[in-house]
Amino acid sequence: MNFNSKIYIAGHRGMVGSAIERHLRKLGYNNLTVKTSAELDLTQQQAVNEFFAQEQPEYVFLAAAKVGGILANNIYRADFIYRNLMIEANIIHAAYEHKVNKLLFLGSSCIYPKMAPQPLKEEYLLSGYLEPTNQPYAIAKIAGIELCDAYRRQYGCNFISAMPTNLYGPNDNYDKNGSHVLPALLRKTIEAKKAGASSIEIWGTGTPRREFLHVDDLAEACVFLMNNFNEEGFVNVGTGTDVTIQTLAEMVKEAVGFEGNLVFDTSKPDGTPRKLMDISKISNLGWSPKISLEQGIAATYQLVKDMF
Question: Out of 29, 96, 112, 137, which one is annotated catalytic?
Fold first, then answer.
C-alpha cells in the first residue's frame, strides 16, 4: 500500500476495524473508505456489489463480523453462522469481481480444535473437533480462510487471512450477555468496586488459560501483513504467552483497585481448556507485539472506568 491507496475498512466501528482505522491514519493513510451498517448492509450481496463498483477500493481490511462471548455464541448460533458467512462471502467475491489489489480477512483463534496441541500452530486447523459452544462462528471463520485461499488458487487473487487471539482495548463490547472474558471481568469488577461489594462471581473454575492481545497491537500487525505477507494460508497474531482466568481476574482486580474476593462458579462452563497461539510465523516475518497485558489492562481501565 502507498499513502494514496484507496483503502476500505469493513467494520470500522467495531473494536478491530476502528483500531485499524486509527493506526492507518496515524501512519498517514488518509484515502480511507468506511460505511456504517445502516449505510451498507454487508449481508446483502447486491448492496455490497454496488458499493465496490462505485468506490473501487484497492485494498480491503475485512474486519466486519458478528462477535460475542460463550453465552452469545451458544444462544445465537444461527445468527453467528449466517451473518458471518454472508458478510465474508459478499465482500471477498466483490473484491475479486472488482479487481481489488489485496484483501486481508480477519478470523479468530476459535477456529482451532478444542483439544489441539498447544501452542496452536497454523497447520492444526481442521485436525479435530471444535469447541461446541462457538462452533457455528468458528465454521464461518474457517470458511472465510478457505474462501481467500480458493480465490487465490483459482483466480490469482492476493487475499490473505490473519487469526488473532483474544482481543481487548478501545471500543470493546461490555454488554453483560455478549462480551468476552476480559471486558466482562473489567465491567464486573468496576461495578463491584463502586457498589462496595465484598466479592465478584466468575464463571467456571478459573483454570483455563487464555492469551490476550491489545487491539492496537493487532491493528499494527494487520497493516504489517498487508504490506509484507502474500501467501496462501493464514497467520496467527498473538503474544505467544497466556495466563489463567484466575490470574487475569487478579490482574483486573489490581488495576481497578477492588479489594473483595473472587468466587468461581464451577457449575458454569469453562470453554476451551487452553488457547495459546504459536506466533513463530509472524515473528519470522518481523513483527512482534509491544503492549504488555498489565499495561493494556491499566490503559483500558482508564478508558472505561466511568462508563458503568
Answer: 137
Alpha carbons 234 and 229: distance in angstroms, whole number: 10
Q: What angle do CA 86, 220, 225 make, to 5 degrees?
A: 65
Q: Which amino acid is located at 92 in the chain?
A: I
Q: From CA 265, how far away is CA 199, in angstroms rounded? A: 12
The span from the CA of 25 to the CA of 20, in Å, is: 9
Tell me the angle at which helices 15-27 and 215-228 cross, rounded to the nearest 10 degrees: 60
Is 155 an annotated catalytic residue?
no
**SS percent in the chain: helix, strand, coil, step 5:** 45, 15, 40
pLDDT tens track for 114-161: 889 999 999 999 999 998 988 999 999 999 999 999 999 999 999 999
Q: Which pTM value belongs to this model? A: 0.94
Q: Are strands 261-265 and 159-164 parallel, antiparallel or unpaired?
A: unpaired
- Residue 79's CB: how many other CB atoms inside 10 A? 15
103 vs 216: CA distance, rounded Å: 20
Query: Domain boundaries in the chain?
Result: 7-171+213-239+278-291
Q: In sequence order, which ranges of the chain are alpha helices (DSSP H)? A: 15-27, 45-55, 70-75, 77-97, 135-155, 181-195, 215-228, 245-256, 280-285, 293-304
Set of cell numbers at residue 82: 449466517
pLDDT per residue as tens digits for the range 3-53: 999 999 999 999 999 999 999 999 999 999 999 999 999 999 999 999 999
Architecture of domain 7-171+213-239+278-291: 3-Layer(aba) Sandwich (3.40)
The answer on pLDDT for 90 being more than 70 is: yes
